[in-house]
Amino acid sequence: MAICLVVAAFLNTSLKVISPWLGYIDWLLLITLYVGFLRDPFQALMTATAAGILQDGLSGSRFGISGICQLLAVWFAFQVSSRFFVEGLLIRIPIVAGATFIYFLTRIFVYRFLGFGLPPVVEINRGFTDIFFGVFINLITSLLLYALLDRIFRVGFRQRSRRAEAMRGLRKSTWKKI
Prior knowledge:
There is one protein chain. This protein is mainly α. It has helices spanning 2-18, 27-37, 41-59, 65-83, 89-114, 128-153, 155-177. α1 packs antiparallel against α2 (27-37), α2 (27-37) runs antiparallel to α3 (41-59) and α3 (41-59) runs antiparallel to α4.
């Protein structure tokens, strides 16, 4: 995951130079949300903290604000993924959209509440149009990125092994009752 964060930080800073449209993709947020889907709260919080530090350090924005926004977004993703099976696209789409929307709104709110000007990387000076475009482009990117990360980290294999382990425990406890 550390390598994924470094690559995401590089993509956040370098793709914006190529095209302003690619600057809307928040790669660090997408990696953080993916870790939130893995249902490990400690790893999700540490990844969100590291992503926030990387984003604030590379963007020159106020230190700590991105970390707070990342933590809220990953908390939302973790809460939903711990209650529902999030391996399918139908459930991941609203979670990514909701978490990205929470991230952008929290970021704008914190900057406005503290009286700071928005950092140049955010570029949400035009308001909700940019937020909705950012949510949409992050959503499209997440579909491709998560499919790639699932293959790399073999998430399906882990899920099947956890289910098999749970079923073995369920069968043993059922037999003991009989």
